[in-house]
Each structure stands twice: as C-alpha cells, then as structure tokens.
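User:
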Amino acid sequence: MFGGIAGFIAVGIAIAIGVAGERAAKKRKKAFWDTYGSFEGFCDQVDAERVQGVRRASGDIAAVKAVRGDHPHVPLVMAKRYVDELPS
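Assistant: Predicted structure:
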C-alpha cells in the first residue's frame, strides 16, 4: 500500500521539478532576447579578453561559467556557443 503512494508522490515531485525547470528555461530565454536582442548583440557586450584568459587558464567549462556569471540571463547553450566561437 505505501509503495504505491510513495511512487505516486515521487512521480508528482518529478513532474513538478520538470515543469519548474522548463518555466525557468523559458524565462531565461525571454530575458536573453529582451536584454540582448540577438546573439550578436550579446557578443558585443561580453568581455572577450577576460573570457579568453579564463579559457586559456582553466578551459572551456570555466570560460562558459565566467560568461554565465557575468551575464546571468544567458542560456547555457548560448554561453557555450560564444566560447566555442572565440578565436583560440
């Protein structure tokens, strides 16, 4: 009896977490486009020299974290794209 209830509760929690995560992602995406207008508009506002320095010193993951730390509305995909497109 309790296994069924516990499973039901676990599924409900998983769904709630998924919905909350999806809402947060949509909100971040909207904030990105409202703030920067385009990927190029975003690129113009990033301190490329600082990100390149972090990338050289600590790698791509640290550089992506630096971008997202400076620009919290940037989705992970956009931050990664920015780092990937930086000249070496």
